[in-house]
Design brief:
Number of helices: 3
Largest sheet: none
Distance between the termini: 42 Å
Number of strands: 0
Order of helices and strands: HHH
Structural class: mainly alpha
Radius of gyration: 22 Å
Strand content: under 5%
Helix content: 55-70%
């Protein structure tokens, strides 16, 4: 490996490490407490209802309807 290539890789590693540390420095709060989520899901499961996650807005249906180029 050439010296310039090694320097570029080291700088990239430093940049990515700094970026990771920056992202990890801010805690992400829970949107819904675990107890609340469980209390909402249990009755639905007891009814035997099968749920599917909503399709993202840029999914195949949106492209088919020409909402997304």
């Amino acid at each position: 490996m050439s010296a310039p290539q090694r320097i570029r890789e080291e700088r990239l590693s430093e940049l990515l490490a700094a970026w990771r540390d920056d992202v990890n420095s801010v805690p992400i709060p829970r949107l819904v407490p675990t107890e609340t989520a469980v209390a909402l899901i249990r009755p639905v499961r007891a009814l035997g209802v099968r749920c599917r996650a909503a399709e993202p807005p840029d999914g195949p249906a949106a492209r088919h309807g020409r909402l997304v180029p």
